[in-house]
Amino acid sequence: MAKLLLAEDEEVLRMLIVDTLEDEGYEIDEACDGQEAYEFICEKEYDLIILDFMMPVMTGLEVIEKIRVIPSKQDVKVMMLSAKNQQSDQEQVLNAGANYFISKPFSPLELVKRVEEILSEGK
C-alpha cells in the first residue's frame, strides 16, 4: 500500500481528497500547514507528497525547497496543487523541485488518475 502525505489548509478540500484517495486504498497522513507537512516529511517516508502552494506558516514551495536539500528526501515524488496556474507559477514550482503540478480546481477522479500514474512510474 502506498503511503502519501497531503498538506492542504482548506479543511473541506483536504477531507475530500483524503476520502477519495483512501477509497482507492492509499494510506494518508494529513497536514494543515507547511510546517506540519515539513515535520511529517522529516519523520516518515512517503511514496508521494501532495502539497498545496499557498498554506499558512510555510508555503508548499518553501517545503519543497527545504526537503530537496535533505539527502534522503531528494528523490521523493512531490505533486503541487495550486490555484496559481500561470505558466510562470508552474515553472517556479517545477524549478524548486516539484515533479508534478495540478491546477485547482480539479476533479477527484483526475487526482486519482495522476496519483496512480505517478506511483506506477519506474515500476
UniProtKB/TrEMBL annotation:
Positions carrying 4-aspartylphosphate: D52
Family matches, as Gene3D superfamilies: 3.40.50.2300
Domain Response regulatory: 3-119
InterPro entries, sorted: Bact_response_regulator, CheY-like_superfamily, Sig_transdc_resp-reg_receiver
Keywords noted in UniProt: Phosphoprotein
SUPFAM superfamilies reported for this sequence: CheY-like (SSF52172)
Superkingdom field: Bacteria
Protein name: Response regulator
